[in-house]
């Protein structure tokens, strides 16, 4: 007799019962922070709503970032409909609502650049230098269209020594420092 297998559709939709992917863990942590914000009696309802909407890619955070950053730092794309407002210091790591909504704690990035930045595969020096993790294979960078990063990292002669974007503002420095030390995979 063969036993019938039972599957949880919830577990399967999140990658399986024992799956601890980046997205699953990230969502769990973000949900826990969101619950703490909702339960914080020290915050006004409008602040709570703004912070939660900022996490979901809406509202005040995006507007604050758009006031500082006009284009994707990696691709140069300026069309706002193609850009994501991405936190430099991750939302879950921010200690206050002010940090979570601060436009200086954000970059406008294309979805692929956001993914690389969010996962710590790229970061930035305060002077605009693009930092690339050694854990990103050369072929993957090429497939994503980041040939300049490949040439920079692997020293092909026609590449500039350093791929540099515009210098960041001083008030972005602490957030970038956090990203380089706590998120970037060196």
Q: What percentage of residues falls in helices of 4 or more residues?
A: 40-55%
Averaging pLDDT over every residue, what do you get?
79
Give the total of domains.
1
Count of extended strands: 4
Helix/strand structural class: mainly alpha
Strand order of the largest sheet: 1-2
Gap from first CA to last CA? 53 Å
Question: Unreliable segments (pLDDT under 50, ≥5 consecutive)?
Answer: none
* Strand percentage: 5-15%
> What is the count of helical runs?
9
Rg, nearest Å: 19 Å
In words, what does this structure look like?
By secondary structure, this protein is mainly α. Helix content is 44%, strand content 8%. The chain is built from nine helices and four strands. The strands form two sheets. Strands 1-2 form a two-stranded antiparallel sheet. It has a two-stranded antiparallel ribbon with strand order 3-4. Helix 2 runs antiparallel to helix 3 and helix 3 crosses helix 4. The longest helix has 18 residues, at 22-39.
Question: Can you give keywords for this protein?
Answer:
single chain, 186 residues, mainly alpha, two-stranded antiparallel sheet, two-stranded antiparallel ribbon
Helices and strands in order:
Elements lengths: L8 H5 L8 H18 L5 H11 L3 H10 L15 E4 L9 H5 L4 E4 L1 H8 L3 E3 L5 E3 L5 H6 L3 H8 L18 H11 L3
Antiparallel strand pairs: 1-2, 3-4
